[in-house]
From TrEMBL:
<dbReference type="InterPro" id="IPR000551">
    <property type="entry name" value="MerR-type_HTH_dom"/>
</dbReference>
<dbReference type="InterPro" id="IPR009061">
    <property type="entry name" value="DNA-bd_dom_put_sf"/>
</dbReference>
<dbReference type="GO" id="GO:0003677">
    <property type="term" value="F:DNA binding"/>
</dbReference>
<keyword id="KW-0175">Coiled coil</keyword>
<feature type="coiled-coil region">
    <location>
        <begin position="102"/>
        <end position="129"/>
    </location>
</feature>
<dbReference type="Pfam" id="PF13411">
    <property type="entry name" value="MerR_1"/>
</dbReference>
<dbReference type="GO" id="GO:0003700">
    <property type="term" value="F:DNA-binding transcription factor activity"/>
</dbReference>
<feature type="domain" description="HTH merR-type">
    <location>
        <begin position="14"/>
        <end position="83"/>
    </location>
</feature>
<dbReference type="InterPro" id="IPR047057">
    <property type="entry name" value="MerR_fam"/>
</dbReference>
<protein>
    <submittedName>
        <fullName>MerR family transcriptional regulator</fullName>
    </submittedName>
</protein>
<keyword id="KW-0238">DNA-binding</keyword>
Length: 134
């Protein structure tokens, strides 16, 4: 997946949904779902109804993808998006949600490291068995 960062966008430049899909690796259907589910705000549209994603939309999508890639549930992502729309009044709640999620990510990382060490040990065991057969 490529980074959907807005850094490649010139101010006031917008992108159609097909280009956003290409840059993010999300399908157009998923982008529409994210909008319908309240994960992203209503995207600006042309007079003909074509969605046009601005730099801010791309930055927010990049953050949502990080949350998704780190295992945050859609429900928690929706909660975070709603709190974000509330503005400064919800900063403490957003901070708490992100800290809680980071703690979950840290636990998963520790578990993955432990599991990786177990795999290394098992691989070493089988390599020793094969060496003994030669």
């Amino acid at each position: 997946m490529t980074s959907p960062s807005a850094s490649a966008l010139v101010e006031d430049e917008t992108l159609p949904i097909a280009e956003v899909a290409r840059r993010t690796g999300l399908s157009a259907d998923t982008l529409r779902y994210y909008e319908k589910a309240g994960l992203i705000d209503s995207v600006r549209r042309t007079a003909g109804g074509v969605r046009r994603y601005a730099a801010g939309d791309m930055d927010w999508l990049a953050f949502l993808l990080r949350l998704r890639d780190t295992g945050m549930s859609i429900a928690d992502m929706q909660r975070f998006a709603e709190q974000r729309r509330e503005g400064d009044a919800s900063v403490a709640e957003r901070l708490a949600l992100l800290r809680e999620h980071r703690d979950c990510v840290d636990r998963r990382i520790r578990s993955l490291r432990e599991n990786n060490r177990a795999l290394d040990n098992k691989i070493a065991h089988y390599e020793e068995l094969l060496e003994g057969e030669r």
